[in-house]
Structure formats: structure tokens, C-alpha cells
Records
---
Amino acid sequence: MNTPIVIAIDGTSASGKSTNAKLVAKALDYAYVDTGAMYRTLAWYCLKKRIDINNPKAVAAACRTWKTRLKRIDNHVRLLVDNYYPEKEIRSVEVSAAVPYIAAVPKVREWMKKLQRECTKFGNLVMEGRDIGTNIFPETEFKFYLDASLDERTRRRTSDGITENLEDRDMRDSRRSSAPLMISIGAIVINNSNMTSEQTSARILEEIHKKMESINQHKQTKD
Ligand code: DC
């Protein structure tokens, strides 16, 4: 059996990762994985269970004991807790504020890494996050890093009806010691401040096809 292909899409908050990762997954018929949703789900769970999010030991203990499983639903790989996917709840202001604390806990990141690598059991993937190219699938040849100006990203969040301090969030994501947000070696960086999502996803797909062709040519010359 061939090893599943993983397309890693990392980048800053509101840089269009989700929209573009979904478009790319649809075009290639790969499964889509939103790793931010996994961290958000743990943050939601901790808030619900009144676990102190500032206590890394308590958060790590919750992560060891909560009852979860991965399920592919409509081409998306979801993390269910007690058989439930808290789709709306994880987008609340409270969860958005709590999630960077959860995501900075090394034991949580270890747990997430194992889980996220397991997602290949669903086949080829488009996985978006902050450390997919650097830490989760460093071996993949398909790495992208999306960014846009702070003004444009703030405008996007506001037009989605969400008020968020993106500068603060980016700083927390980039400065944490465990798997910080970084541009992976070999990643194709796309600043899409002046691009539509159709243009961004078309650019990503073009790069993927180019890379696939060169991998195939390399294989043929070796055979
Ligand atoms: O992409 P998002 O806004 O849903 O991510 C929620 C939070 O989780 C954000 O603070 C960054 C963090 N995150 C992370 O540290 N690593 C990932 N692979 C995905 C998200």
C-alpha cells in the first residue's frame, strides 16, 4: 500500500488556512483535518469541566483521560468527545481566549501529535494548523505557509463577526517554547493579502501538481 500523502498548510490566524485547505481537499478528494479545532475542543472540554487552564498539569491530566475518537464525517476528520463534536461551542469567544494556554502545554502537544499522525488511517490528507510542516509531518514534501497583513486579517475576522486580538494570538503562538508557529524549511510561503481564496487555492494546487510531477519523474529515472 502507498504511504498516504499529507498536504501541510500552516500559517497565522485568519490567513485563510481553513478556507483554502477545504478547497484544496475538495479538489484533490483528500480528507480535511482542522487541527486548531482539536485544540479548541480540548479548551472547550476544560472550561466545561472547570479545569484550570492555567495549570498545565491539570490540562495534561484531562487530555490523558478524556474519551475521544476520530471520525471521518463528510470528508472532514473530526475529533469527537464522548461521541460529540462541539462544532459551534469551539468557536465561542471564551474558547478562543482559552485555547492558546491549552496549546502551549507540551504534554498536550505530544498527545495531539500522536492523534494527528493517526489521521492518515483515513487516507490522503490536507491538514491545517501551526506546526504541521515543522513538527507533525516534517517528512512531507508538500508544505505551505499562508500569511496576510494584520489589517487584512483583522478585516476578515471582523467580516466573519468575530472580534479578536490577532496580534496577541500570533505572538502567543509564535513565542511558546513547544512547537511554536514557524515557517518550515521547504515550505512555499504565500502572502494572500491581495488574493481571493480561489486564487490562493489555485496557486496551492498548481504547486502540488508541479511537485507531484517532479516526484514522478524522479521515480521514473530511478526505475
Ligand atoms: O486555527 P485556530 O484559530 O482554530 O487555532 C486555535 C488555536 O490553536 C490557536 O491559538 C493556535 C493553536 N494551534 C496550534 O497551536 N497548533 C495547531 N496545529 C493548530 C492550532
---
Amino acid sequence: MTDDSGRKKLDWVRAHMPILQKIEDDVSVRRPFAGIKAAVCIHLEAKTGRLCEVLAAGGAEVYLAGSNPLSTQDDVAAELKHRGIHVFARHGCTPEEYDGYIASLIEAKPDIILDDGGDTVEMLLARYPEQAEHVLGGCEETTTGVSRLVTKAARGELPFPMISVNDALCKCLFDNRYGTGQSVWTGIMQTTNLTVAGKTVVVAGYGWCGKGVANRAKGLGASVIVTEIDPVKALEAYMDGFRVMPMRNALPLGDVFITVTGCTHVIDSKDVGLIKDGAILCNAGHFDVEVDVKGFRKLSTASREVRKNIMEYSFGDKRLYIIAEGRLVNLASGDGHPAEIMDMSFGLQALSAEYLIAHRLSPGVHPVPEEINAQVADLKLGSLGASIDVLTPEQKAYLDS
Ligand code: NAD
Ligand code: SAH
């Protein structure tokens, strides 16, 4: 890493995030975020850095923490500090430090919160309830974060509006599916330096992310098995050409396992006897509980790091490998989704944040307004040099009749 590696990473993504560039050009003139303090808790790497720069260009004072201890890139953090963003993060921080960083965001008394996974909102409501009335609202980036908010709202425990960026089609269709599909394999291939072709890959969960991960595995030449709990999703996987079976049946067959469910103990340590010797286990879902890392650690007779980010656990004669401590493999062991994908997700974040400030929504979970989703799709098409047909008056009248 060179001294200016953070600057280079930010410059590289700037050149590949045309939607954010357009939004930045616009907000730096209109300044819709003037006087606003924005707390951003999203994976602290270059793409998130660009989002923060856009908010700052629109007038916001930005406070930034990483949303995962292993995805923070210290060179990017240092460069962002240099550029005037208030940064609270360190790669590989302890759980206590992680909490402390999020507390620092909250203690800055933010007007808006851009959260990824719900940790900031969770802490604000639990430890700083008096601050809730000052929060205009926020945006949530990921599936599990939205589920947490929906649960809170149903219990009457969400006192401000949160926009579910994750559920906008320009987010989940592209970020969760193509972004996770590609970056999970980049992370695994870079970390292991092994082939995918010919291996049996087991993907747990066939939601937005699982579809991407399974289909990219197929493209790389793997034989793919899908496990599911939802019969419709399972059928979809079957019709897409994958073998479908319960995890216990897949455990003896898989060479590489990827969990991406949002659930817990999808690969349980008590089933260690069923798993093939030498199997590689990784997770791409929100929390580090989908692969029961704690349980495997406890049961193992020996453990050692065999390659950067790969732990070998021995159980007598059997060895299993866990990547990145069972945390999101694409972010804890890679740079996460590509810039062109995060350009759409963060375009939605920036435009939704502006909408939130302009509209004073009621408490609860709100969808991204359809016009914002369409605006991001238009900007993306424009950046690709693609265009679409426009209905003629005759066609419009026909469809309306
Ligand atoms: P989703 O709801 O579309 O899909 C989850 C799927 O998992 C569902 O089909 C569900 O039926 C299935 N499932 C649940 N429990 C299961 C179990 N025990 N065994 C097998 N299948 C099970 O959600 P999604 O958008 O695909 O997100 C999945 C997870 O990935 C979430 O935790 C989300 O926050 C996270 N996520 C990660 C990234 C990343 O960059 N790694 C990106 C987006 C989302
Ligand atoms: N707090 C969680 C975060 C959930 S990660 C954790 O424990 O890690 C899932 C989210 O990461 C996705 O919704 C996706 O939009 C986001 N993401 C993926 N790649 C990214 C990248 N390169 N930069 C920033 N965010 C990214």
C-alpha cells in the first residue's frame, strides 16, 4: 500500500460511478443538505467514500463509521479524514471499539442516518432514546437491516421515518443479485487462489443474493446445489437447473459452501461429522452466525491460519476451512461490490436522503419513491449509452383503455 493509495482508490471509483457524479454536480449547486448532519454507517471503503463526498458537496457535515470491523480500509479512511469527513473506524477493530465508533456517530447528533444493517438505529433507540425526536429519518441499505426496522415499526418502536433503499428494484435486482454474485466469487477466488470449475458448490438461500451467487458459480463451471426453506424459491432454483436438497444431504457433497440467508446456524457445528474433509465454508449474509463459527471453534481439536483470511479447523482427522471468520466474504475478504453497482445503490441513498429532508415523512418504514427508482434507472441507462422507446399517444391511449 502506498501513502496515496486511499486517494487512488477514491479517484478510481469516481471515474466509474457516473450516477453519483451527476448527483454531485447537481447538489453542489443546489446544496439541499446545507445545515444537515449526516451519520453514515456503511462499509468503509472507496465507494462509500464517494457517497460521503456527494453528501458533503451538497452541504452536509458527514460523520462516517464502518458497518463491519473487517471491511474498513484504513487508507480510504485516512484520505476521507483528510477531505473533511469525520471518520470513526479502524480495520479489525474490537467489538467494543466498533460500538464506540457508532456511539460517536450518534453523539454527533445527526439529523439523518444512512445505515447498513441497522446497528446505528438500534443503538440510538436503545441507548440514546432522547435523541430520536431530533432525527429527521434515514435510509437502510440492506435486507436484514430492513427486516429489523419492520419488526421495530410493527411494535411501535420506530419513532422516525426510514426509507428501505434495499427494496427498491434498482437496488436489490442489481446490488443483491449481480453485485453479490460477482463479489462473493472475487472474494473466494482471491482468498483461496483455487479453481471453481469442477467443484461442488452449495449455496444456502435462493433469494436475491443467492440467485446471483449460484448463477455465477454455474458460469464458473461449478456443479451447484441450492438449499432453501421456501418451497417457491426452491422450485425456482430447480427450474433454473440446480439440484435442490436439505443442507444435511448437501453437507457430504459440497467442496465450497456459501450461506446467504439472513438466518442463523444454517451450517451447524453439530453436523461436523457430515461435512466432507477439506470443505471451505463461507458466509455472504448479514451476520456471522449463518456458519456456526463459534461452535466449530469450540469443537475443534486444533486451529491455525493457513493463508491470509483462511482459518483451518481440525476435528481429529478432518479439516475444515472458514474464510474471513464467517463474516461477509465479499467485503471482509475483498472490496465488495463493483463500483458500477454501488453507483446505483448509493444514487438511491443520496436521492432518498434528499427526499427525506424535503418531505418530513411519518414514522415507520417507507419505500423509495418510484420516481427516484426510475431516475436512477434512467441515469444508469444514460451512462451506458443505452436508451428506450417512448410510448406514442396511440399506444398510451391503447394501454390506458
Ligand atoms: P432474501 O430475503 O431475498 O433471500 C434470503 C433467502 O434465504 C430466502 O429465499 C429464504 O427463504 C432463504 N432462507 C432463510 N433461511 C434459510 C435457511 N435456514 N436455509 C436455507 N435458506 C434459507 O434476502 P437477500 O437480499 O438475498 O439477502 C440475504 C442476506 O444477505 C441478508 O442477510 C442481507 O442483509 C445480506 N446481503 C449481503 C450482501 C453482501 O454484499 N454480502 C448484499 C446484500 C444483502
Ligand atoms: N452490518 C452488516 C452490513 C450488511 S452488508 C455487516 O455486518 O457486515 C450488505 C450490504 O453491503 C449490501 O446491501 C450492499 O449494498 C453493501 N455493499 C456491498 N458491497 C459494498 C461496497 N463495495 N461498499 C459499500 N457497501 C457495499
---
Amino acid sequence: MKDFRLPDLYDRVRQIIPAPDWMLFEDDIEAILALKSEKNAVILAHNYQTPEIFHGVADIVGDSLALAREAVKVDADVIVLAGVHFMAETAKLLNPEKTVLIPDTYAGCSLAESITPEDIALLREAHPGVPVITYVNTSAAVKAASDICCTSGNAVKVVESLGVPKVLMIPDEYLAQNVARETDVEIIAWRGRCEVHELFTREDVRAMREAWPGVTILAHPECPPEVVAEADFSGSTAVMSDFVGERKPARVCLLTECSMSDNVAVNHPAVEFVRPCNLCPHMKRIDLRNIREALENGLHEVTVDPAIAEDARRSVERMLAI
Ligand code: 13P
Ligand code: SF4
């Protein structure tokens, strides 16, 4: 068998990364590991990053909530965010004195694109006195115009923490509708959609149950409500991962972004993963090559306009305090 330069690392991922692919990755992985110590840098990677990033070079991995929480604790000069732009902005808000890099500035998000601070001003006019809860998948300017943030991992808790009968929950319409089913608080939604999760249908779920008897189906709450209703369980990417670890279903399907199943499968070789997934084109802009370039050349530094940073940070910190 071929001698790998990083045999221990390859041992962890061998069942999901073919040897020829790994051999192409090794050079960048070695360089990134060296650059991290040289620059005193850490890599925060979202659960949707590819396995060679997630298992090969990341220091901290998780869902949006975990990445925000861990960003506060980071003890390094440089944070590289292997994820999308709003995640890097959140890390910067929580670490104003650190250098935060995103390897590709075009790594956006359809939800973040769907709403502006001006839209929030109009919503506040139409619903005076109703607090605005903003999903973290938004720009810092939108966070600054909001009262508090939430993620898919804590949305119900955040809604109920406010002690009010009605809230505005923006911008993900499906997340808002899915949360509405779990609380008595009235929720007014916006029409934003995740372009990855909106593609799953109830028919997909039914077809999967027929084709894969006994499969346990987990749906991300950015999926349409009828998909979540048809699934066995719903939760953020971290909650899905924990579900697989704790319940160890014999056969499971994660209705979410494609890399998620790969990353979870590494830790649970006995679980069979059925994979009718959708790719996020924004998450997939990040690869080993541009992470390496980001570390080598300090690219691309994320900054937040000081005029909005304080208010945006307040919305994120209110969420983290819950
Ligand atoms: P979570 O990892 O917080 O569940 O978010 C999913 C997502 O779509 C992030 O962009
Ligand atoms: Fe945005 Fe959806 Fe991609 Fe997450 S998966 S970054 S919510 S488009």
C-alpha cells in the first residue's frame, strides 16, 4: 500500500476519502498544519465543510451556534473561518481585536441575501413594539437592526426567552414556521429561504422510506414544514450529529447539505447513511487550496463597519447569554 505522509490522519477518514484523493490533499494539509503554528492561527469549520477540511485541518467544528460560542474562547491571533461570510462576520464581532480571515469572499448565503436593514425598518413600522429575532444567517447590518439573534439550535429557547406573545422572526420563513409549531408565541415570518434545504420535498421523504426500509430520517429546520413533519426528527446540524451518536440508528438519512453525512459517518462506521443530499454552492467555495492561501497571505480579512459593530454584537451576545 502507498506510504502516506499523514498516515494517522488518513486512518480516520479512509472510509470516506479514497486514497488517490487523499494523496492530492496531503501537500496542502501539511502546509496548513505548519502555517497554523507559524501564524498562531485556528481554523473554525462548519459541519458542511468537506471531510478533508473538517477532519484534516480544522481545530473547532460545529453548527452555527457552536462556532459562535467557540469564537469567543479562541486564544489565537488569527481565525480562519471555513464556512460562509456571515459566520466570519460573527466571529469578527466577537473578536474585534483578532484577525479573521475568510478564504473566499464570495461564500455567501441565500438567507443573508434575502433581507436588508431597510426591510427591518419597514417590518417594525408595520408591527410596532414587536421584537425582531434574527437568524444568524444574516449580515452584521441586519443583526444591528435586530433585537436578538438565534440559530437553528436555540430558536425556540430564544423566542420563549423574550416573554412576549408575538415576535418577528427573520429571514428564514421555513425555520420560523417550524419553530411556530413548537411554541405558543405568535411568529411573523419573512420570505427568505435556504436554497439548499428548500429543495427537499415531502415526496422525497416518502420515496426514501419505500426505497430504504427502516431508515430514520432527520430534517434540518430550514427544510419546508411538510418535510419536517414527515421526518422522524429535526434539529440543527449539531443536534443531528448528536442524534446519530446517541441513538445509533442502523440506517439514517440526513436531509441537509452533502458533506454533513460524510463528516458524521467518519465517527459512526456502523451506521448506514442514505444520501439524497443537496450541495451548498457557497460552502463549497472553501477548499484546502484557498485555506492555505488565506494563511500564507492573510487573505481575506473580514471587517465590520464600526458604526454597526456594537449593535450587531449586542444582538449576538444577547443570544449567547441565553
Ligand atoms: P446550523 O449548522 O446552525 O444548523 O446551520 C445550518 C446552515 O445552513 C448554516 O448555513
Ligand atoms: Fe445559506 Fe443554506 Fe448554504 Fe447554509 S446551506 S450557507 S443557509 S444557503
---
Amino acid sequence: MENKKRPHALVLPYPAQGHINPMLQFCKRLVSKGIKVTLANTIYISKSMLADPQSPVCFGTYSDGFDLGGYAQSESTDNYLSSLRDVGFQTLGNLIKKLDEAGNPVNVLIYDGFLPWAFDVAKNFGLKKAVFFTQSCAVNTIYYHVYKGLISLPPRDDETSVISIPGLPLFKSWEAPAPMEYRDLLINQYSNVDYVDWVFFNTFHKLEEEVLKYVTKLWKVRTIGPTLPSMYLDKRLEDDKDYGINLFKPNYGACMEWLSDKPSGSVIYVSFGSFIQVEAEQMEEIAWGLKDSNFNFLWVVRELEKAKLPNNFINEISEQGLVVTWSPQLEILTHESIGCFVTHCGFNSVIEAISLGVPIVGMPQWSDQPANGKYVDDVWGVGFRARPDEKGIVNRNVLKSSIKEVMEEEKGKVIKENAAKWKNLATEALDEGGSSDKNISEFAAELLYC
Ligand code: UDP
């Protein structure tokens, strides 16, 4: 089919690694089904990213009002989000006009749930609208109930309250999502969800079967995950080995060389994602907990977090551990020396570990992470949650014993069996005719005929 005639989707992720990764992967799947796709990044991200020059996806830019430094250039979260909304509204419209003038009119805008203002941009241009949620369906369903005023989130130290929602297990207060200063951003995701043409989730049918039964009654839901590069799952998209946009530079050589002589299943991989700042006290407990575990460990400590490492820690761990500022996470998780993943339970990290069959030690910090941690432990059985103390800190002994629950042969047996089971189901979802593959094909077909 001629390029010009293909339906054109404009895809708008929130400008952060954990949002770009799943949405870019979805773009690649759409291209494979005959859709032309343009992914819009902010000018700042576009200047700072390392993008795959061979990408089948086209890139466009809009502005968040901070073209020189992005979020770091803003005065506060509120300041950033209001500029992203106001300047974004205008400049996203400019991008749509520009694409139209270049002979590539857009048919559908697929926007991140974090950017509900994009709904009105699409409406102004008469486009179809789809919202893409990068968090789990369970978490989004909880937030939706908060938005509708049907429940409120109890304080984390409230021992008595529970959250009860159809299709979800009961959540104790400390297991519920904790939106903190991003409350408006998270809750307002639902301001127009009842009016969009499609609702996409980076999950797969079997993973969240119960809650999906409930939300499919509310919206036209399509599960399209897990959004890992195809080579890790169904292997049907040629050369799709990497997400394709890196906001940080991975220490590839150092990681691979260090892992190369470690025995199979012997290394703990530790990462807290791209965004959160771990409390200094927590950082110290993690450091000594890892050292005391006596296992080898590969720990990602981002440049800005490094000052929180205990004095002399790097010298003391010597060959037992490697600390890097950013890793090629998927390649690490598939390395045969890895035995478990100590994670903050960001949804991408969780779904990556599930898809690659790596058992998890959960150390959720905030936002959707406590709820993801609950699913990891209680629902999917693919990991063990390290329980924080009353100050919210996981102390070194708790971390050490949680690691043992997963790494030791007898204790970790069931977790490992579950991890292997979910890995197969994740791949099945994207194999030809699998639930996610079918949903992506159906969406592409609807676009072709609308
Ligand atoms: N990631 C990576 N290298 C690292 C740490 C993280 O490539 O050293 C990737 C990881 O594979 C995931 C994303 O960054 O796709 C982090 O997303 P997640 O939802 O887990 O956490 P967030 O950064 O949103 O808190």
C-alpha cells in the first residue's frame, strides 16, 4: 500500500523513559500491521535522546515550554505540568497542522493517560481519540474509582481500612497506589476516558483477566502488551531488539564483562527505574543488605543518586558487586547469570521481569508501585515483597531475608515455577493470533476502514 494512503496514527507519550518505551513499542507493532505512525517527543527529549536511526517509526516534536532542560529546567512539578499542558496544547496542534500540510494527515491521536488535554487537541482537529495507559489495568481501575468519587485512598498507616473494587483483590492501605504530589496528574487521567474511541493497556489478557472483565464493560478496552521488543518475545518483528530511545547511556560493556564469569542464576540485579529518588537512609540499608546477602549483585544507581552511597562502599564490595549509572536492562534480565530482580516495581520493570521469567524482590516506593508489588507477590506469585518498617524503610535484614526467599533453592521454588509459567503466557499473547496480537490487528483494521 502507498505510504500516503496508509492510516496515520500520531502517538504522544508523557516525556519520560517509562512512558516512551511502551508507547514506542506499540508504534512498531502498528507499523507492522500497515499503519503509518509518528511518535511525538518534546523538543528537549528529542535533542537529548539516543534514537535508533533505522526505526520504522517517524518522529515529530512539540514543546513542553522547557526546550533547553525539560523537567529539570522547571521550578516545580506543578510548574512543569502546567507548561506541558499549555505550551503542549498549542504546539501539538502545530505538529498536526504541519503533518497535514506535508501530505501526511493524522487520523487518530493515541495519547498517554498522563496528558488528558490532548483529547481536546484531537477533538479540535476532528481526529479519532485513543488513550494509552502505561500503568496496570488494576491500578488504573483504582484511580478511576477515586476520580469518580466512589472510593478514597486511605492514609498508608491506616491499619483498618481496605479498598474493595470489582475484579480486584482487597487492598490494605499500605498496598494501595500512593500518588503523593502527582495526585492531580494521576487522577485526572480519567477526565475524558469515557469519551475516547479506544482504551489501550500495556498488559495482556491472562495477566489481568478479572479486572479486564470489569473495565471492558466501561470502555472499548484493548490489551496490547507486554510491550517488550519483539526479539524477547514472539520474534516476529525483524531486528526489534531494543526499545529504540535511550534517555540515559547504558554501561553495556562494563555490565556484560562483569556478568560473563558469574555462575548461572547467581546474581541479583537491582534497579529503581529512571525517576524516583531513594531516601538516603533507604539507600544505605539497600547497600549493606546487598553486601550482607553474600550474593553477587549488579546495582543501577543513577548519577544523581550516587552521592547517597555509603562512604567507601564501592571499595568494600570489591568483586562482589558492580554499580553502574544505567544498564541495558533487558539484556541484563535475559543474562543467564541473573537469579532475581530487586525492583521498585515500576510497571515496565515488573512486566519486563514477568515476560523474561525473572523472579522479583519487590521494594515498592510510591505511585503505582505498592499495588504492582501486591500483584507480584499475592496474585501472580512471581516474587516476594520486602515489607517496610513504620518509617517506610526496608531495613538491611529484611532485604537480606527477602532475597533469600527468592534466591534459595527450596524457598524460591514456587516463585520460579510461577515466573516460568507467566513468561510463556506473555509470549503467547503476542504470538500470531494471541490476545494482544489480535487486538492490535483489529485496531489496525478498524483504522483502515474508518
Ligand atoms: N531501564 C533501563 N536501564 C536501567 C533502568 C531502567 O533500561 O538501568 C528501563 C527499564 O527497562 C524500563 C524503564 O527503564 O523499561 C523504567 O520503567 P519503570 O516503569 O520500571 O520505572 P520508572 O522509570 O517509570 O519509574
